[in-house]
């Protein structure tokens, strides 16, 4: 399906699922990995809700994983996929009770140097919660990413994703994330899904977001690796603020001041 004729033959199972801190925090596990489609499982739980709003951006972690592992399972030897950009459409809050969610991804097209994939999150009752499209490219690596030598343990269920990642608001629209065991991916950089969570938090802080607002889409471009060893700062610029909708641009900055991700976040007021 969309495979380049020049690409070498692929083997199912060329990628082992890496459980980094981000996967541990979001209770994500692998169900099936393959070069055409992949399925993960994500638990429902109270950590997906906090005092501000439902943590819709938290779905960025499994959505980044599921669409990336489709590419990883069919990668050429000596290469690993990294995200160029992710578009997430968020249809509902992730459930805090009930059966696990199913997160599925599928290959759209594979081409020299990269691939495009898409996926979805469906709750345990068959309701679609989120949709995603990811653009990936392949980089040369000496070895595939690996899980931490000491497994990261998820915090207690009453600790929200926002609190576990240590987000702190510096000023309106500016949020910092300190180094934490829950932010890195298997390469030691900030997980792309964690950057999505940070961009959502910063956008909501820019409009004094509360339970009246919900994030409906996040479109993020990754321009360099996020430095998981130092503070990452998320700065917001409100481009439009209406009664029912706001559009916010968010830049994620490494401690050096260089951007690692640029996102457009759209939020809407909840309908009664």
Topology:
Elements: H1 21-26, E1 28-32, E2 37-42, H2 60-73, E3 79-90, E4 101-111, E5 114-122, E6 128-140, H3 161-164, E7 168-171, E8 174-177, H4 192-206, E9 213-222, E10 232-241, E11 245-253, E12 259-269
Antiparallel strand pairs: 1-2, 2-4, 3-6, 3-9, 4-5, 5-6, 7-8, 8-10, 9-12, 10-11, 11-12
Commentary on this structure:
This protein has 272 residues and is mostly beta strands. It has a single domain (21-140, 158-269), classed as Hotdog Thioesterase (Thiol Ester Dehydrase, Chain A), CATH 3.10.129.10. Helices cover 14% and strands 38% of the residues. It is built from 4 helices and 12 strands; from the N terminus they run αββαββββαββαββββ. It has helices at residues 21-26, 60-73, 161-164, 192-206, and strands at residues 28-32, 37-42, 79-90, 101-111, 114-122, 128-140, 168-171, 174-177, 213-222, 232-241, 245-253, 259-269. It has a 12-stranded antiparallel beta sheet. α2 runs antiparallel to α4. It starts with 20 loop residues before the first helix and ends with a strand.
């Amino acid at each position: 399906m969309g495979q380049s004729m020049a690409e070498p033959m692929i083997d199912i199972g060329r990628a082992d699922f890496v459980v980094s801190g981000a996967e541990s925090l979001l209770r994500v596990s692998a169900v099936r990995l393959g070069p055409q489609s992949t399925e993960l499982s994500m638990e429902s739980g109270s950590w997906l809700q906090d005092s501000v709003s439902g943590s819709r951006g938290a779905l960025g972690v499994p959505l980044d994983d599921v669409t990336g592992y489709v590419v990883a399972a069919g990668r050429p030897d000596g290469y690993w996929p990294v995200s160029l950009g992710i578009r997430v459409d968020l249809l509902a809050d992730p459930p805090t009770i009930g059966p696990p969610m199913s997160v599925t991804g599928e290959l759209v097209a594979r081409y020299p140097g990269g691939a495009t994939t898409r996926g979805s999150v469906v709750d345990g009752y068959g309701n679609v919660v989120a949709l995603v499209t990811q653009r990936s490219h392949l980089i040369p690596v000496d070895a595939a990413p690996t899980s931490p030598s000491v497994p990261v343990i998820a915090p207690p269920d009453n600790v929200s994703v926002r609190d576990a990642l240590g987000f702190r608001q510096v000023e309106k629209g500016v949020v910092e994330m300190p180094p934490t065991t829950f932010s890195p991916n298997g390469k030691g950089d900030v997980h792309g899904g964690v950057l999505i969570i940070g961009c959502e938090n910063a956008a909501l802080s820019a409009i004094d977001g509360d339970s009246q607002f919900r994030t409906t889409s996040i479109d993020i471009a990754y321009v360099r690796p996020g430095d998981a060893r130092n503070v990452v700062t998320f700065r917001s610029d409100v481009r439009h603020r209406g009664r029912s909708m706001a559009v916010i641009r968010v830049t994620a900055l490494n401690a050096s001041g260089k951007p690692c991700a640029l996102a457009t976040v759209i939020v809407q007021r909840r309908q009664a």
